[in-house]
Amino acid sequence: MYDIIIKGGRIVDGSGEKPFIGDIAVVKNRIVKIAGEINESAKKVIDARGKTVTPGLIDGHTHSELNVMYNRQQPHAVYQGITTIVTGQCGLGFAPTTPEGLKRSLRMNGGIFADQGKYLPAWSSFAEYLELLGGAAVNVASNVSHNAIREYALGFADQKLTGDRLETAKEELEKAMLSGAVGLSVGLSYYPGGFSDTEEIVELCKVVKKYDGIFCVHQRLNDGQIPRTSLEEVVKIVEETGVRLNMLHYRTGGLEDYRSVFEPFAELEKQGAEIHYEFYPYLVGAGLLLALLPGWAQEGGYDKIMERLSSASLRDKLLADMRERHKYFFAEGQTARVALTKDKYADSIGKTLREISEEHQETFQETVIRLLLENELEAGFVGVENQTEELKEKLYDDQYRLFTDDRYTVGSDTIPEGVLCHPRTFGAFSRTVRMMRERGVPVEYIIRKLSALPAEIYHIRDRGMLKEGNYADICIMDYERLRDQADFENPRRRAEGIETVLVNGLPVLENGEMTGILSGECVKRGQV
Ligand SMILES: [Zn+2]
Questions:
Q1: Cα separation of 445 and 437, whole Å?
Q2: 474 C-alpha to ligand 1 centroid (Å)
Q3: d(Cα 146, Cα 181) in Å, to the nearest integer?
Q4: Can you give the pLDDT at residue 228?
């Protein structure tokens, strides 16, 4: 007797092969049989006739590092058919740590992670942290993050990581890899990671390579325009260590040919390097306001930053350097909306930085400084998609071309916090399916890109494909109806079209409603 049989659905198994009509039987947390027809009995039969049955989708890029511990249902993901998330991207993360270190890091990252008073369980090592990620509605895997490792070894100092401190960092990284981290992420436009030099990252990547983990890169001063100099650094690191590479939120930014994104890595690929790329299907990003400050202003962490922001004697230099840094974040004519502030009812939420600076008769940079001070650094923004129609069309066309390149996948870059979060949190995956379906990309190709491929990249074992013996992470959807509903005005609208989602053999979503079951596990890097 089986626990569950899913009957008569159109099975898209994640391998990229053509769909077929069939039944799937589940016992406990595993898929035990897939066949044209299964006639034995089961405790529960799900009628999937007329529906599409796929593997649970895998989102390789989220910032649910903390959110998943108190928002265990993760509805933004489940309503898109996502059953496994990877967190600890862009160099952001909080393990290993100490009680004081965690407090310091939270204060520095309030613009993304928000609400510093929220209850969190205690951890110090990466291994302890990883265990705490189990027990949500989705499975969670995690990178170890460069910022956490560096903060642990050196605090927020603008110094080279050398000698004993470098050894400490490498030891902690090694322990994290041994306890199941999928890889290492860097976010070199954030601090303290941004204080590093290339040598430091080469040293760390040697450890990642030893365990065949993935090296995930958010470039130095990433402005979406793909600055070539920061890519030379990445090429050098891969060349010297042979580490597997995944370029995060990496796509075209303007009128260049889409193929140019691959050029910096062409030589490496010829030499056999394993390189992957990802993007999310929108034209602007999101982040913390603090990132608009130059590195010297962030040295030392929270107290020193607040002092510098209030200092009259540093004001001119700060404003000048912010103007310089600004152009790396926003293209000409672009602005951003305030998405997250310490005061959830602040009237700045939803206004653009330009509107606020006009209201207060101050420059853009002065607005940023004031908002950071008023909110004790806890302020975040979401970009405004105000490109010309012609450019929008070009950029979405590029996204289609990148998606249909075998090296590319999609990562949502979910940031669940913020009154006005980026719509990618509730919509990136369902939007990808909708956009690519509308352009005629076959269902089996789309699903593979969002399930089996990320499982391969992150070495997530026994998930990402409907296969006998694999975990029963299964999604039943009305494929033609699957679409995103979140937009920049209403970013928390859930996606439509996902009907039932099994995670480890239990339904976390059934007939379009969350069940409250929390059957997700923490996922450790598999040996492949
Ligand atoms: Zn990033």
A1: 10
A2: 28
A3: 12
A4: 57
Q: What is the pLDDT of residues 304-331, one digit of tens each?
A: 999 999 999 999 999 999 998 887 777 7
Q: In whole angstroms, what is the distance from residue 179 CA to residue 213 CA?
A: 12
Closest CA to 204 of 169, 178, 246: 169
- For ligand 1, the distance from its centroid to the CA atom of residue 33, given in whole angstroms, is 39
Q: How much is the CA Rg of the chain, to the nearest whole Å? A: 23
Beta-strand pair 498-503/506-510 = antiparallel
Query: How remote is the CA of residue 222 from the centroid of ligand 1, in Å?
Result: 8
Spacing, Cα 218 to ligand 1 middle (Å): 5
CA of 106 to the centre of ligand 1 (A): 17
* Residue 346 zone, left/alpha/beta (φ > 0; ψ -120 to 50; rest): beta
CA 114 to ligand 1 centroid distance, Å: 17
How many Å apart are CA 48 and CA 218, to the nearest integer? 40
Q: One-letter amino acid identity for 43?
A: K
- Domains of the chain from N-terminus onward: 57-283+392-460 (3.20.20.140), 286-383 (no CATH)
Instruction: Tell how far the Cα of 46 is from the centroid of ligand 1, in angstroms.
Output: 39
CA 313 – ligand 1 centroid, Å:
33
Dihedral of CA 181/211/276/188: which sign?
positive
Q: Are 113 and 65 within 8 A, CB to CB?
A: yes
Ligand 1 centroid from CA 230, angstroms: 14
pTM: 0.96
The Å distance, Cα 92 to ligand 1 centre, comes to: 8
Separation of CA 258 and ligand 1 centre (Å): 20
Residue 166 near residue 202, CB atoms below 8 Å: no
How far is the centre of ligand 1, averaged over its atoms, from the C-alpha of 13 (Å)? 30
Q: What is the pLDDT of residues 96-120, one digit of tens each?
A: 999 999 999 999 999 999 976 678 9
pLDDT computed for residue 527 by the predictor: 63
Q: How far apart are CA 364 and CA 55, in angstroms?
A: 46
